[in-house]
Amino acid sequence: MSQNPSSLNPPNLRPDLAPQARIEDVARPGQPKVGMVSLGCPKALVDSERILTRLRAEGYAISPDYKGADAVIVNTCGFLDSAKAESLEAIGEALQENGKVIVTGCLGAEPEYITGVHPKVLAVTGPQQYEQVLDAVHLAAPPAPDPFVDLLPATGVKLTPRHFSYLKISEGCNHHCKFCIIPDMRGKLVSRPAHAVLREAEKLIDAGVRELLVISQDTSAYGVDRKHATSPWQDGEVRAHITDLAREMGKLAQPSGAWVRLHYVYPYPHVRDLIPLMAEGLVLPYLDIPFQHAHPDTLKRMARPAASAKTLDEIAAWRRDCPEITLRSTFIVGYPGETEEEFQYLLDWMDEAQLDRVGCFQYENVAGARSNDLPDHVPAEVKQDRWERFMERAQAISEAKLAAKVGSIQQVIVDEIDEQGATCRTKADAPEIDGNLFIDEGFEELQPGDMVTVEVDEASEYDLWGSLVSEG
């Protein structure tokens, strides 16, 4: 069996990236067109979808390229200095190719930083400032709606493939991690009402979405700002709490067999209440938890909870109650003050935790982050060496875990089809950031969004290969 070269693994230095935006729209003659460049994480991609949904409802077409657009929106990322550089480069390219550029997103919280490099942008707005973005588009290209022609799908405009969708349940974050400026850019936690989230989930599933990816800055904290207030839902009420939300979302998904996947779940004690929902099949047995490090001293310097030993106990309990659970996380190596002893502690913790999916950042200073002022910054060559050693350890764990799946039967969702085969994902794999399962025989009748059963034939460090199992 040939090993398909199209895998996106191993993960790179930015394991937080969203899938590349896909734009499928056809303009009518004379219809104003707006282009979109969406950078950064899945949460930013949802912001882009909201902006484009509003514009589409006002009669704009969405242009897949610069040349055909009357204006271009660049939704920026400001998480790391490397992300800022990428955003500035994208703005410059849009200016060169089109000239009418509107900047929004996280980097938009620093307008002088952007206009200092690109003074010709039409407008700069911060994250979630949808009205200001619309105002800037109206000035650049006045709307010309035709209510008899411009129809908006019930799900709004989506930049992901039609069979999966990100569902944002809250904005902002109440944590004060020293390396992060997201609370400064996006504010404190603001949760959406539970019934509003569930209504959106219901619309997406009714429209044929086969996988809902639940996202926020801190999914575990959902509803804390609302004091977990209840709101009317169907024949009763639903509480603004992640356990209740996940349960109700799972009930909505069950009839169609759609998947519900939880991302960015901090390991609060009440996370253990989600595990029975996974064991019952209401939500996928998958937790994406940003541990960031394991050594108590490093975590303390990060201003994060420092109970890594207790976390190992929690992981053991999760696996006891739901043996099929997949655990994904991200880590930072080379954080200021990280000693070789602390780094080795992290490697040993990894050996014990045996996480299934792991991404890793090398620490970078970010303008405005408190960690910039910490003493004992780690030299670049040491950070690179530690990143390589960390990823080597994580890869060995992944390789062993995937090898153990050879011969197993897995349900997979089909993402793409080309002449080489079908690119799919198991329940253990989120789009873009995790691995793939490839089918290179008998795939000709498959379509994106299909859910099929396969037997795993082969494994590599990050990906699987399998054969279709015939029904009956």
TrEMBL record:
It catalyses: L-aspartate(89)-[ribosomal protein uS12]-hydrogen + (sulfur carrier)-SH + AH2 + 2 S-adenosyl-L-methionine = 3-methylsulfanyl-L-aspartate(89)-[ribosomal protein uS12]-hydrogen + (sulfur carrier)-H + 5'-deoxyadenosine + L-methionine + A + S-adenosyl-L-homocysteine + 2 H(+). Binds 2 [4Fe-4S] clusters. One cluster is coordinated with 3 cysteines and an exchangeable S-adenosyl-L-methionine. Signal peptide: none annotated. It is found in: Cytoplasm. Pfam families: Radical_SAM (PF04055), TRAM_2 (PF18693), UPF0004 (PF00919). InterPro entries: Elp3/MiaA/NifB-like_rSAM, Methylthiotransferase, Methylthiotransferase_N, Methylthiotransferase_N_sf, NA-bd_OB-fold, Ribosomal_uS12_MeSTrfase_RimO, rSAM, rSAM_horseshoe. [4Fe-4S] cluster 1 binds at C41, C77, C106. Its EC number is 2.8.4.4. Its cofactor is [4Fe-4S] cluster. Belongs to the methylthiotransferase family. RimO subfamily. Residues 403-470 form the TRAM domain. One of its GO terms (cellular component) is cytosol. [4Fe-4S] cluster 2 binds at C173, C177, C180. GO terms for biological process: tRNA modification. The keyword Electron transport does not apply. This is Ribosomal protein uS12 methylthiotransferase RimO. Residues 159-400 form the Radical SAM core domain. Residues 32-142 form the MTTase N-terminal domain. Keywords: 4Fe-4S, Cytoplasm, Iron, Iron-sulfur, Metal-binding, Ribonucleoprotein, Ribosomal protein, S-adenosyl-L-methionine, Transferase. Catalyzes the methylthiolation of an aspartic acid residue of ribosomal protein uS12.
